[in-house]
Structures are given as C-alpha cells and as structure tokens.
Amino acid sequence: MKITTPTVIVKRKGKPDSLLVQKSRIIVIDGAQQGDEIVLESERFTMGSSPQNDMVIVDPAVSKQHCEIQLFPQGYLIRDLESTNGTFVHGVRVTDAFLNDGSEITLGTTRLLFCPLQATTEFTLSDNDMFGRVIGKSIAMKKLFYIAETYAPTDTTILIEGATGTGKEILAEEIHNHSKRRDGPFVVIDCGALSHGIVESELFGHTRGAYTGAATDRMGAFEQANGGTIFIDEISELDLMLQPKLLRVLEKKEVRRMGSNKMKHVDVRIICATNLSLEKQVNSSRFREDLYFRISIAKIVLPPLRNRKEDISLLTQHFLKEFTGEEDAGKLINLQKTMQAFNEYDWPGNVRELRNLVEMTAHAPEGMIDPGAHMYLGRMGNAPSSTAAHQYDESPFKEAKNRVIGDFEEHYLRELLDRNEWNVSKAAREADIERVYLIRLMKKYGMKRTDTI
Length: 453
Prior knowledge:
- With 453 residues, the protein is of the alpha+beta class.
- Helices cover 34% and strands 23% of the residues.
C-alpha cells in the first residue's frame, strides 16, 4: 500500500480495525556517530544521551532525554524536552515543530536528517467506544483502549500521562476494575495534595513514636492496597529523598514503616500518573532516571479534549444521560447549536470542564450554554455589566460573543500573571489550565513571557 498520509485506518471483515503508521528514518549526517541511522517504527520516538532512549546520541552537549518525535494525523512533530542546549530544525531553535522530508535536526554538535519512508507499522484498535467509564470513539481513544485492554489483566506497572482534567484517576481505576485484582482495594495517593512532611507516612506508614504526633502504629497506602492496586497521582511531586524508597517497593515488593527496621512484603500493583513530562524532570534532575524507567514499563497518554473533538458529542450525550436520565439529548438542549459551540471551544479544563458544563447545561432554562462565555465569566465570578451588554446589542451574536470573551481573557490573564509574578507554570496551576494553552493565550494578546521555567 502506498502511503500518502502519515496514518491510515484499515478495516478488515471479521477483524479489529487497525492503524497503519508510516515509518521514518533518522540518519546522523555530522558528529561522532556519522553514518548511523535508525528507523522509527512507533508513534513516539525519543532521542538523548541516556541509553534508555530509542536513539542514543553520544554527545556531551546532548541531554539525557533531549527530544521526542511524535506522529500526529497532520505529520511528525519534534518536541524539545527542556534540554540544556536546545533542539534546532534547519538552524532555528524550536520548542516543537512539524518535520518535513529532508528536515535537518541539530542536537548539541550532532546533525541528523529526517526521511519518511513508504513502509508502515500496524497498530490494532479497540472495537469498543468505552473502557469502563472512559469514553471515546476517536482514533486516539481506540488506540488507548486497546493498550488498556491489553495491560489491564497483567500486573505490569503503568504510567498514565495527561493534562489536568483528562481523566487519569478514572482510567487507573478502570484498569484496576478490569484486572484480576478487581476484588481487592484501590487506594489513591495524590502526591501533589500532600505536604512533603507527611507523604512518607501516607505511603509507607509509621510506628508509634516515629515522629511527634505519631500516637499509634499506622498502615501506609502500600499496606492498605495489599492484594489490590495503588494509584500514585502527581508522581512528579514526590520528593527526591523518597524516590529510592518507592523504587525499592517496585523492585523488592516490600515496605518499611517510618520508625521501624522491619520489612513487610506487599502484593500490590502500581499505577502512577503525572500531568508533567517526567522526561523533562529527569533532564533537570528533579526525578530519578532509574525510577522513571521502572514506572513507565507501559505508558498510556490521555490526549487533551481539544485533540479529540470527535468525542465531544458522545461525551456530552453520556453526561446528559448521567445528570437527567434522559436517553434523547435532543429533548433537553438544542444539540446542533450546542455542539457547534462546544466544537469551537478549546477546553483547557478537558473532560472535567465539559462534564461540569454539561451539568449546568442540563439544568439551564434556556437549554444551551456557550462554553467560552459561560465558563470564562463563571471563573471570573461576574456577569457582564448592563453597559457592556448594551454595547454589543446591535452586533451579530458571534462577533459580540468573541468580543466579550476577548475582553475577559485579556483582563483575566493580566491579573493572573501579575498575581504569580509572571511565572507561567505557577499561573497555569492556579488557573487549572495547561501551561501550553496559557502560553498560547499570552501570544494571542501580545503578552511577553518573562519566566524561564
């Protein structure tokens, strides 16, 4: 089959659908490894100096996890992983950029050439539009479901990556529910919600007198999850001093409570999640490389909702049924107009934001809420003034709506960034939106990014 696009869906009678992914070749054209080449046969490919990469670059100017290449429907995207010396395409430093046939990539002192091939790799897609409570009919989700269906029955350690609101905890629980441990406990630990002083006790437990206030012996999450699954959310927030203890649990299946010298065996499956790139954390020495490779034996990436908009209608109708019990969503809302508005919106809060908005929509007397105007104004806590409303009375609806949203976005962003001293990462966390989306909004309104994080 001649490939004219990077991905092709193949349907065969009596067999699951599959995805044909175009292979590519990376050739070293200058540097210590000149002449070396490797064929990319997956949708994600990493390069760096660490031996764990798909392509190892022996160059002192190259970071451990330097960059990655991902395949999207529109082509191959190279993304820098916050490397020390940067990633360059045709001599221009990039954060991310789509590659073309013949694109020249520079990492440190090494130059590489990117060449798509006609050969393909095939990936099986799930026949299902859901995996438990996780729903989607897009290609991205059908690929995800197949991976989840494959690994759920095993005890393989899984790392789930995804932005805030994409449903990482729900996916982890459904993997547990589809496993042989389904009758055992499912214990959740959120490292981002716990102070550094109590994380060790929460994970591993403590004995009486282990620290001030430890009046009794207490089991930690690993002991509580014995026979079941422990889900460690925001694993990137785990203190470096505790990471070796977690690594020991993974390798030895035993824990030691704070204040005790006794090791206890635990029979537990571990699923971790993060909304950050752990590879970037490894590069900046904020996360142990050995632990990263141990927890990411299997990796599942939950895409942001804006990258799977074909799922919005399915999700909306599912949530409407959940909140109202009504099978026919068209009886409750103007589905056509609502879907048009929903598909035009970028959903920085992802599926969580959609679910919250659908709940409001289900009970709204007008039967339809615009996601942009309603959610932004709802976050601001103020409705438009009567003066502002009168100002747009004679404008077409879409134009007036965009002007209201634009006025709000610019005002909201400036206040948000001022409060956080223009630290983009902190501001994104406060606003509960993705950092990349915040940067996009800043560019939209000509706001100069001054942070270096």
